[in-house]
Specification:
The complex is a heterodimer. Chain A is an alpha/beta fold. Chain A contains 14 helices and 11 strands. In chain A, strand 2, helix 3 and strand 3 (68-70) form a beta-alpha-beta unit. In chain A, helix 6 (115-128) packs antiparallel against helix 7. Chain B is mainly α. Helices cover 76% and strands 0% of the residues of chain B. Chain B contains 15 helices and no strands. In chain B, 52% of the residues are buried. The chains are: A alpha/beta, B mainly alpha. At the A-B interface, helix 10, helix 11 and helix 12 of A face helix 3 of B.
Amino acid sequence: MRAGFLALGALIGWAEIAMAQPARVVSMNLCTDQLAMLLAAPDQLYSVSYLARDPRASAMTQEAERYVVNHGLAEEIYLMQPDLVIAGAYSTRATVDMLRRLGVPVAVFDPSNSLSDVTARITQMGQVLQRQEAAARMVADFDAGLAALATNIDRAPRAVLYYANGYTSGDNTLAGQILLAAGFANAASEMGYMAGQKLPLEVLALSDPEIVISARPYPGASRSEGILDHPVVQALRADLAGATMTDHDWVCGTPYVLRAIQGLATARKALTGTEQ
Amino acid sequence: MSRLSLLLGLATAGLFVASLLTGPADIGIRESLSALFVGPADPLALVMREIRLPRALLALIIGASLGLAGAAMQGYLRNPLAEPGLVGVSGTAALGAVLAIHTGLSATFALGLPVAALIGALLGVLLVMALAGPRGTSLTLILAGIAVSALAAALMSLVLNLSPNPFAANEIVFWMMGSLADRSMLHVWLALPFTVVGWFLLGTLGRGLDALTLGEDAARAMGIRLSRLRLQLVVGTACVIGAGTAVAGAIGFVGLVVPHILRPLVGAHPSRLLWASALGGAIMLLTADIAVRIILPARDLKLGVLTALVGAPLFLHLILKLRKERI
């Protein structure tokens, strides 16, 4: 019964959004920021999150300069008087609830965990912004770009993604899918680590990957990133020290993922020495 | 006494081997132990020599330091509630280490990390001793400890929150609870020199502490120079706690629990209690570090969680006991 009411509410909310193109949109999540910037009509998008200007996380820092910045706080977003707020599934729950209580429509986007999620999110963004045609074009371009990157490879080198605090990304994550699309095999997933989770240093050592791909360290020291200086990680990275790093193209399910795949495929070719 | 030391020594050795054999990677006993000593530098040897060996060594070294420092402090202050973690010395050592990491000192100068932690610990001991006074009651000692701990924790949290590094703020937990996960031989070499100096300073306190059980006047009459005794205690504690906290964070309650359990077994002689507590501390920390790897293998449960679960109830028990005695 309650679920029925919720579904009805969602339908009404959906109908409201679908009726007219929202004219003053606020995005409060790094990934929806970038999709909205790519798809919004001129002047349709009013504000993006402060992370959209962070060069480590965002692939669109220059574009983000054109928008007002928000910090995901209900108060500041309400005062922007948006007719649509776009949030991520991991945005602060309290903020989203508060905005809904205040009568602001909120569209919530799930994070992308695969390459097919990327096109699904692009389509979803096209719907909430009433920019379906632009979204359809972008999906077609993305699929074409992905098809162009697909190659037959003789041998998939075994790689591990390893980040601060010993976290890895397995096959069931966007970063893991980027790795596979670039022609690598994920050595962490071979050991049973499929999600974004902690990979003990011992297991990393025993998985004996050919390459360890990590993120660039942030400014200012931290113990969490110190694990990447551990002799075990250093020994595994010795051949290609610092050669391959993840960056802002890896973070979100946007068309920039293609750039990440391309860069990584180049690193694979350097590693295997084939021109395939 | 000799039977006790034999027993403690055997338990320490057994737990050390058990620690070498505990970990998320599933390796057989014989192949893991042989990979430790012989064979090529394959992944298995990397696991044993660069991950498990430093972890077991650090648990041994730091556990012994904590037990020894606890016994020495309790002997000098003649107060069973004194313990480096509880009186805030571990907290000020952690503050020193955090400052060294986040000012870049430890990156430019490798020994900067233990030295800064040592200075932090030194200031902490001096502050607590000054606040509690040489003949301070349990109450003043605990209050001074609370004040020093709270101040150190607040300053440390401030430094970590001000850091431009987004991971820094989450490390408050590590510095307050302690962990030996993912340490390397480098950390053993950073901690060991200062620790050995500290062990020597604290380990030779025995005669003075024994004399002190008869009262300060009697100790003086027996030729003990109390100012020298105090200096030795302060510097020794700062050395072992500074070096240990710099690489493993602040681990509380070991120095409280171990001397309390062992005191009746050594006939309440502070000199015997010192070395027994060193072994006992190693046993407790090795056990705790094996337990965190068995309870939550992939999550890095902090050591301080387990030591506090054992230590805090004992602490309450001691407070109740002291209160009854006073009435």
